[in-house]
Design goal:
It is built from nine helices and 20 strands. By secondary structure, the chain is an alpha+beta fold. The protein folds into three domains: 158 residues, Beta-galactosidase, Chain A, domain 5; 190 residues, TIM Barrel (Alpha-Beta Barrel), CATH 3.20.20; 79 residues, Nucleotidyltransferase, domain 5 (2-Layer Sandwich), CATH 3.30.420. A hairpin with a 4-residue loop joins strand 16 and strand 17. Helix 5 packs parallel to helix 6 and helix 6 crosses helix 7. The structure holds zinc ion.
Amino acid sequence: MNVPIYKNLHSSKELKIDKVNSEVYRLNSSFTNPEFKQYDFWSFQGGSYRSRPDWIVPVVDNFSQENYQGMNAREYGGGTPVTDLWNRTMGMAVAHIEPIFKPVNLPVEVQSDKQVRIGVIFEQEDNILSPEEEYQTIMTMVLVHDGDCYNGLSVYSSLMQKQGLTFEKFSDGSYEPIWCGWGYGEDFTLNDMYGTLPKVKELGFKWAVLDYGWENNNGDWLPIKSKLPNGEKDMKAFVEKVKEMGMKPKLWCVPFDADTASNLAKEHPDWFVLNKDGEKVRISFWNTFFLCPAVPEVQEYQVELARRYIEDWGFDGLKIDGMCLNLAPPCYNPAHKHKSPYESCEKTAEVMRKVFEKAKLGDKKALAIFKEYGTHLGEAIKTIMFAVDPEAIILGGSVCQSYPLFQKTMWEQVQTFPYQNSIDRLVIERSDEPHIAILGAAALYYDSLPGQQP
Ligand SMILES: [Zn+2]
């Protein structure tokens, strides 16, 4: 790990820093085996590009890739700031290990003598070092290892985790099969969705996604009248329908983007990222524009949207589109008073974290409601026990899909019944029978007929 500090030793002369080179090395694979060409390496490169190149590639003659960690195209930026080269004998990784975004290059370049140059290179803008002033580079890592890039990336990961960037445990259900309505494209109808859900259920999918096209516009994020004429009421009905079928509804959305036709754009024209020319930055697919993640009100709005989806409408999860997920562009909007245009990049991950936490909190609230339901149900069962002392109780209806969520509190309440023998004997089962209520009514009627034993 390295954090060099440089000092301008001139007593009266300013120095302009154009570029800071850290961990720059030239590697020659033929040193380890004379049969190898100088550039015979495999390479891991974590740059994000519009062409979506592979992250692991064999290095070939004249290969060159900058792996810039800022925006490489309008919607493509960010990445994993690690470069790792390896052959059968050795491997070498370089990385920046600052805990927040840095706009650095991590180039892999076959040079004219066929050796490969790697490094962490920080281009500077208007960086003047006054006399006697010090400059501290970003924190970087260099690692020599055996094996392949897994070893370099593992060490990078452990160094980041030691700085507190630990992984969240993935949510229950993250790896369950998901059916997405995107197969119908943006012109889907709710009838398309309702008509397909039984087959989705039959095939064993656990999630059903309402995808792009449900919203009136990106920005206001309200149900579009042409598909959901009753607005939120239709949205909640869709959510209920998916839940009734024993699946979990998920909603597609995009963080920090807005259509200029939205009410949001009219009410908050100063929320947008502006480029150096003072123009909004377009997200091409939806013809929308980036909002600045470093504006506190933009952050609050994104969290409020997550709350609306999860708490008001009842969705169990969000499908966040990957189009502009990685990074917001640098922001030159004077209204935001950024210390650095890269504040918008630095805050991108923070917004995503806040959205995640709000969605999880909604989840907790839902869990609390089920726990409370379990307590009430336990009370009701105790009343039945006083009246008829049953040996078995069969629970039916759609709520049974959520039985594991209220089972514990239900039994805790039943355990307070004063006669232990009755508790010990009692069996509570669930029925998957979809028409349990009508069967129950029929049974009562049947029992009441003359000549029938109750
Ligand atoms: Zn900004």
